[in-house]
Write a sequence for this structure.
């Protein structure tokens, strides 16, 4: 029975006289309800603002921690590439000195003016070193065999500005863009910080920060010692990197409206920052980086002490007169640390806005309640004049019946407002008040579930999204992406692409030089898709390249990689792969296949399948031996490698693209441009798929042999 019906029934069934008492009780109750409602609303607003502020701070801290850790991993990845390249140069140099009879003399001279700002190898000598002395001349001719390796890393390293080999005899062999002739005969590598540190430690090391000798800006070097077979130090291999790209990573990292990141060295010196307060300027206009460890501000010194001690965390502090939150995390490759600064007032601004909104709503609610009371009183006194005597008797019953459930409801609401979301309201009047009680009960349960679920879902979603985005960037950076990769090698041209089906994939391609005249090409497909396949792909790619560049034949490489992948392979993953060594002097091709799709080869512009034995996959059975095959590429012949994501690409009708369509697409392309060839095949697959979702990773690698030069 509705509340309105109850009121009408009571009034019509009794005299008007009780209305006098009912009026007094009702007026008093209404004003009490008004006060209770406003007090409850104010209490709920304060609780909501407090809880929102705490939840917002926790969310921002988690977001800052995730962001600063991701940036640290990104910078580590960049520096790790430089470490790998530097160690490779040192290994090759050690091999040259260990086996001098295997290398023909390959002399190198001073830098000519016309070769400045190119990747032409050259030497720099310490004062008093005469390169025409027979002993020095002989060592230059031997050490000069490192030129191609230095040039390769100067080309492929995105951050590397120069690769070099400093020798104990007082000279350096250098390959680097932007080099000049100014220091050709006045550069002693043995006095350089990178040389001294690596020689002293006897292991891969990083130098202190320095200004690049050729004027390219703030730089750092990674260096590794090179020893002769008798243990004698013959030199130090190094890679110089200008920090502009790492500075860009830091200065492009922002959060909110004014949040920014900064990079701190192990000595407490600011390396990169968007905050102008982190720098001062000398009279000549040069920028001077502040050192937090030497700051007059004790708070800055304590912060720098934690960051240089490789600690991580989030803390609130006063920085340059502003209350801020700072998240920081160390790098793993070098003893630096990244910080992320967000003003506290910017973090809690949404809570302040919410408090102002709640206050405005409270004022509106108070005005509406006052108006309602005024209208009710007016109507009541009009009725009271006509029916005061009849309504008096029934007023008490009416007031009691209406206020009891409201009071119970109000008490329960106050407990809920105090944070007791487990409170259950029991109102059995079977009218709108009972419905309101049920609604409040449901609201309390929904708020409780919503708060719990929202925190879990938001945190998990942000974490997974950020990790997958970083993983995709890292995987893309591991594959060769600069084309043409070897512009100085006229015998060949290559182009490759990998399109993952998910954020990250398990396909990969690679190419690299085994020696000055032998090029290795690889195409492979890891079982499965997504993050597990991507991780297994990184392991397989690294193992294949490392084993190949250690001087093993293709069959020996696959045998070694297979055994390594079988160790502790509890997930049961495997890799199909095809690898070939191309002799650039003869066009001879030596290849090995591990369960992979046979490649296509063009002869006089016509493509055909290569008759390749399948072999067994890598990572399946330990101890397998792999059989090599051989072929020959003529001038203008093209070798086309791919994964099954190409042949198994499906359209909306679930039909597959297939090998025959691949062959038709290849033969329909008359261009000798390998990039155009790969693009045309990709376009053919897209046209066939007709917008259907990509099911598997798709990889292509095309190599054209232009003949020996």
């Amino acid at each position: 029975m509705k509340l309105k019906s109850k009121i009408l029934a009571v009034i019509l069934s009794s005299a008007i006289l009780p209305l006098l008492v009912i009026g007094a009780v009702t007026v008093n109750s209404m004003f009490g309800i008004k006060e209770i409602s406003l007090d409850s609303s104010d209490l709920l607003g304060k609780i909501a603002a407090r809880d929102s502020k705490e939840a917002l701070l926790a969310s921002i801290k988690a977001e800052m921690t995730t962001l600063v850790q991701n940036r640290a991993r990104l910078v580590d990845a960049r520096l790790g590439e430089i470490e790998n390249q530097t160690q490779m140069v040192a290994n090759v140099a050690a091999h040259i000195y260990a086996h001098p009879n295997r290398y023909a003399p390959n002399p190198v001279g001073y830098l000519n003016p016309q070769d400045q700002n190119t990747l032409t190898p050259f030497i720099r000598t310490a004062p008093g070193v005469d390169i025409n002395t027979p002993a020095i001349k002989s060592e230059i001719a031997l050490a000069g065999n490192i030129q191609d390796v230095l040039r390769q890393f100067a080309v492929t390293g995105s951050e590397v500005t120069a690769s070099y080999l400093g020798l104990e005899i007082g000279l350096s062999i250098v390959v680097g863009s932007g080099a000049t002739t100014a220091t050709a005969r006045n550069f002693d590598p043995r006095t350089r910080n990178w040389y001294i540190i690596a020689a002293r430690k006897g292991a891969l090391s990083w130098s202190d920060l320095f200004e690049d000798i050729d004027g390219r800006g703030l730089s750092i070097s990674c260096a590794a010692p090179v020893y002769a077979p008798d243990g004698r130090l013959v030199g130090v291999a190094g890679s110089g990197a200008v920090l502009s790209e790492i500075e860009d990573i830091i200065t492009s990292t922002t959060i909110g409206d004014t949040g920014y990141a900064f990079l701190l060295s192990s000595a407490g010196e600011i390396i990169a920052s968007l905050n102008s307060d982190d720098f001062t300027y000398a009279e000549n206009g040069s920028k001077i980086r502040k050192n937090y460890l030497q700051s007059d501000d004790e708070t800055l010194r304590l912060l720098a002490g934690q960051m240089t001690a490789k600690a991580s965390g989030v803390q609130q502090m006063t920085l340059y007169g502003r209350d801020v939150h700072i998240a920081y995390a160390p790098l793993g490759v070098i003893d630096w640390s990244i910080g992320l600064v967000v003003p506290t007032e910017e973090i809690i601004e949404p809570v302040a806005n919410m408090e102002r909104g709640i206050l405005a709503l409270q004022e509106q609610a108070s005005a509406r309640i006052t108006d309602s009371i005024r209208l009710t009183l007016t109507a009541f006194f009009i009725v009271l004049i006509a029916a005061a005597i009849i309504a008096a008797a029934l007023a008490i019953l009416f007031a009691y019946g209406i206020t009891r459930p409201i009071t119970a409801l109000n008490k329960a609401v106050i407990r809920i407002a105090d944070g007791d979301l487990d409170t259950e309201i029991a109102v059995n009047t079977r009218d709108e008040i009972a419905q309101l009680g049920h609604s409040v009960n449901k609201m309390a349960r929904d708020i409780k579930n919503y708060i719990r679920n929202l925190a879990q879902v938001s945190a998990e979603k942000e974490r997974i999204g950020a990790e997958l985005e970083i993983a995709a960037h890292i995987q893309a950076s591991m594959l060769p992406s600069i084309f043409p990769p070897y512009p100085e090698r006229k015998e060949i041209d290559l182009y490759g692409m990998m399109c993952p089906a998910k954020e990250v994939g398990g396909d990969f391609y690679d190419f690299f030089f085994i020696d000055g005249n032998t090029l290795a090409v690889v195409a492979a497909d890891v079982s499965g898709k997504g993050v597990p396949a991507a991780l297994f792909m990184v392991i397989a790619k690294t193992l294949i390249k490392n084993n190949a560049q250690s001087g093993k034949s293709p069959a020996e490489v696959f045998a070694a990689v297979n055994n390594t992948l079988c160790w502790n392979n509890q997930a049961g993953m495997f890799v199909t792969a095809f690898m070939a060594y191309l002799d650039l002097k003869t066009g001879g091709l030596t290849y090995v296949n591990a369960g992979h799709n046979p490649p296509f080869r063009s002869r006089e512009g016509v493509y055909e399948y290569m008759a390749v034995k399948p072999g067994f996959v890598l990572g399946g059975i330990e101890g397998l031996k792999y059989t090599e095959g051989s072929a020959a590429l003529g001038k203008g012949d093209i070798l086309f490698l791919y994964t099954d994501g190409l042949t198994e690409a499906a359209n909306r009708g679930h039909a597959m693209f297939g090998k025959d369509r691949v062959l038709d697409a290849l033969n329909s392309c008359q261009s000798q441009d390998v990039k155009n060839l790969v693009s045309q095949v990709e376009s053919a697959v897209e046209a066939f798929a007709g917008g259907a979702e990509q099911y598997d990773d798709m990889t292509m690698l095309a190599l054209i042999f232009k003949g020996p030069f």
Observations:
- The mean pLDDT is 85.
